[in-house]
Amino acid sequence: MFRGKLPKRQRLIGLWLLLSGISLLGGALFAAWLDSLFQPQGIARLVLWLGCFSGGGTLFLVGLLLERMLFAPLRHLQVQLARLVANPDARDDYPPEGWLRGLGPDLIRVREAWRSDRQRLATAHAEGARSAARIRQELETLLQVLDTPLLLCDHHRRLLLFNQAAEALFEGHTGLGLGKRLDALLPVASLQDALSQLPADGSPRELLIPCDERWLHGVMRRVPNSHGESLLTLTDATAAWTHEMGARAGLAERLPALRRHGASLSSAAEALGSVRQARHIDDTLQRRLEAVIGEECQALGEEIERFGQLLEDMQQQGERLVPLWSNDLWRSLNERLAHHRIEVTPIGMPAWFKGDAPALLALLVTLLERLRAHVGNVGFEGEMRLGNRRVYLDLIWPGPPLPQHELAVWCERRLETLPLSPRIGDLLRQHASDAWSLADPDGTHARLRLPLPAVERVGAPPVRLPPRPEFHDFGIADLPPPDAELARQSLRTLEVVAFDTETTGLELRRGDKPISLGACRIVNARLLASDTFDVRIDPGKPIPPASTAIHGITDADVAGAPPLAVILPRFRDYVGDAVLLAHNAAFDLLALQPTGAGVTLDMPVLDTLLLSRALDESLDGHDLDTLAERYDLSFPPGTRHTALGDARVTAELWLALLPRLEARGLDTLEEALALQATAFDREDACT
Question: Is 317 helix (H, G, I), strand (E, B) or coil?
Fold first, then answer.
């Protein structure tokens, strides 16, 4: 009946009250029969009735005593032991009570000895791991500053490491994540073939890889003396490829025409020289040759003009002209001007533009030095103005504008701080720009204007995220191969996606819909802090105020959000080959799998509610709040009843349950699912 476990508290209380009631009722009936049979009087009658009630009363009092002195302390001891198994450093809220009070010193001794052993073991590990920690720190620092996207995968093509540059390159791609297959990120057959044929000595191989609308230049090499790990570095070759196919291809097309006109001009000049030496030749031929030379000279001049235009295009479209944010330019400029006692105050709205940052900074420093000498001012204002396909960089000062002949002299000035000492005019031509001065409408200020190429981008640059510790996990290489039988895979090696939903209400079968979906990933028994999935969903119906009071999501929050039919395929891609995890998973799966959903979540599902109920059937309270308190887990402020916040705590709860499952010899997914099934009853099926 109890499957070898302690019966639930409600069953014990019910059985105790039933037996007590039966005993009292039997005693009352027996006393009444004896009273009618012998008809005792006085003390004898009192003794008769007390004796008949003594059995039921004793049973009631003994049950009450056992509940207070034994069963309640046993439940508290079970909670404390479960907490210690999950986390040896958990707080001690349930000291032994009642008849188990004598176990208090022993339990304290066991706990302290356990913690002492762990401390000594940690100290021993710290000595041996100090050098490894230093290497790891250096690796993480290198990953943060390395601008080249880098991926490291094992021989099963699972990602062991990637850096922030790779995250920026594949921003928003659901295939990027520790433990995920490289095939999901770059599903290119030629890449997989090249990786399988890499030489073991670490010699590089190069490949041009299509990725959406971009071309990536990849350099691959096998890591020497490894277990088949491969290193892949990537660069976005789209701009360079376009550049090769643009201005440089135009140069190649112009070159034969130049050679042809040059050869024709040379032949005509040679023929004209021969005609002039031969006096008997008619003047008509000489005039024709002169006409040919004139035509070829004109054509050659036109080709040279086109050639020069292509050279200017190459210079303007060169890879050194990159998108720049004006606020970053002003900040860097003021850092350089600090030594010159000049300051530029940015005004107006910031903007994106295209330029060569080092060259522009050197140019602006020189111009501001000349301006200070000319106008006698050390404080200037800087403004970016949007024009027609151009962005105007203005330097503003109080006073009259500069004469144009003065600017012409400045444009001939060479910048000695740059390689080859280019002139200011050369840098302006590199940016397809010029410089002129004009007066402001207020009549008191003037400005020096430099037009620069615009960039089709709006908004400030995204805030750079802090370094993340989960950019690498070399333990993934020791996990079973992806094609291993999932049911027999160890629980600690599972890739798990914990998820949760928020809905318009609890009546999913009567029309309530999901409005938020959050998920996070566990790889190698480690919760990845920033590998998350967090979206709002348009339910297509109003959100009741009673539901908003719980999760805080209003109709305005989901206005414009994509519907479930759009979100579900993206979530399926995010899950990949992982096992799903949820608390009361039946509810969340029903929310995500309505009739005609189109995408099926057919992977195994672990449920922390059922697992906790199966592990501690005799304990009350298996809701998320109670289990978080039981295992000393906490919700960050404002995250309770949010999809991502609840999913994170569910993931932490799973990691807390892992040691308890292992202590019972449950090591595989198949065994965990079997245990979970024992806690699923008809009440769950009808919910």
Answer: coil
Residues in the chain predicted with pLDDT less than 50, given as ranges, are: 1-6, 241, 243-246, 316-319, 465-470, 682-687
Give the pLDDT score at 468: 44
Of 467, 403, 461, 476, nearest to 435 by C-alpha is 403
Amino acid at 445: H
Terminal Cα distance for the chain, rounded: 23
Domain count for the chain = 4
Instruction: Give the per-residue pLDDT at 330.
Output: 92
8 A C-beta contact, residue 346 and residue 326:
yes
**Which H or E element spans position 601?**
none
Domain boundary among 418, 452, 486: 452
Q: Are residues 424 and 337 in the same domain?
A: yes
User: Phi and psi for 298 in degrees, rounded to 5?
Assistant: -65, -45
Residue indicated by tokens 């109920």: 613
Residues 328 and 308 both lie in one domain? no
Nearest-angstrom CA–CA distance, 265 and 289: 10
The pLDDT of residue 3: 45
673 in the same domain as 525: yes
| Cα separation, 610 vs 608, whole angstroms | 6
Check if the beta carbon of residue 680 is closer than 8 Å to that of residue 610: yes
Q: Which residue has the tokens 């501001």?
A: 368
Task: Tell me the CATH number at 656.
Answer: 3.30.420.10
The gap from C-alpha 682 to its chain's centroid, in whole angstroms, comes to 40
Is residue 583 domain-shared with residue 525, that is, in the same domain? yes
| Inside any domain, residue 331 | yes
pTM over 0.85: no
> What is the CATH classification number for the domain harbouring 294?
3.30.450
Other Cβ atoms within 10 Å of 533 Cβ, number: 21
Joined tokens for residue 145: 């500053």
Same domain, yes or no, for 655 and 573? yes
In a domain, 562, yes or no: yes
Q: Is 648 exposed, middle or buried (0-12, 13-18, 19+ CB in 10 A)?
A: buried
Q: Are residues 368 and 381 in the same domain?
A: yes
Count of residues in the chain: 687
pLDDT at residue 244, rounded to an integer: 45
Please tell me the distance from the alpha carbon of residue 660 to that of residue 615, in angstroms, as a whole number. 8
Close Cβ partners of 610 (under 8 Å, ≥ 6 residues apart): 676, 677, 679, 680, 684
Rounded-to-integer distance, Cα 16 and Cα 58, Å: 12
> Of 393, 421, 452, which residue is a domain's last?
452
In a domain, 208, yes or no: yes
Q: Tell me how far apart the alpha carbons of residues 165 and 216 are, in angstroms, rounded to a whole number.
A: 13
pLDDT at 126: 75
H helical segments located in 518-666:
545-551, 555-558, 564-575, 585-592, 608-615, 624-630, 643-663
What is the pLDDT at residue 420? 73
In a domain, 57, yes or no: yes
**CB under 8 Å to 354, separation ≥6 — which residues?**
321, 322, 323, 324, 431, 452, 453, 454, 455
Count other C-beta atoms under 10 Å from residue 622's C-beta. Answer: 21
pLDDT in tens, 94-116: 677 777 766 667 667 777 777 77
State how far the Cα of 524 lies from the Cα of 601, in Å rounded to an integer: 22
- CB within 8 Å of 198: residues ≥ 6 apart: 205, 220, 221, 222, 230
Return all residues near 149 (Cβ < 8 A) that are at least 6 apart: 162, 163, 165, 166, 168, 169, 170, 233, 234, 235
In our burial notation (b when 16+ CB lie closer than 10 A, e otherwise), range 208-243 reads ebebeeebbbbebbbeeeeebbbbbbbbebebeeeb
Mean pLDDT of the chain: 80
Same-domain pairing of 161 and 294: yes
Spatial separation of the C-alpha atoms in residues 256 and 641, rounded to whole Å: 71
